[in-house]
Amino acid sequence: MKIVVTDQAGEVHELEGLEGWRAMEVMRDWGLDIKAECGGACSCATCHVWVDPDWAGRLPGPSDDEEDLIYSTLDQKPNSRLSCQIILNDGLDGLKLTLTPSASKTIGA
Ligand code: FES
What we know:
Blueprint: E1 2-6, E2 12-16, H1 23-29, E3 48-51, H2 53-56, H3 64-71, E4 80-82, E5 95-99
Parallel strand pairs: 1-5
Antiparallel strand pairs: 1-2, 3-4, 3-5
Bound molecules: FE2/S2 (inorganic) cluster.
FE2/S2 (inorganic) cluster binds at residues 24, 36-38, 40-47, 82, 84.
């Protein structure tokens, strides 16, 4: 399966993903600009992505903790999610995500 990620510079990357992996892990392991400070423990919000509107409704909803963390970011949108909480499966083949400034190791937001 693949996920399609637009980075903070607008460049589009097609990344090979694995069922059961977190979207955050795939982007990090492919070297994209994602801080993911807490390593996927849902406690930092530095893995913040915007989910393509066509895909947003196909993901399980966020937990209260995830919602609170998203609320703490300055670049939140209605389609914001934390990518460490998106567990990949074959039904998500082609999932489109955009990395946010607040996920960047250098930009910050
Ligand atoms: S990596 Fe910290 S909340 Fe996702």
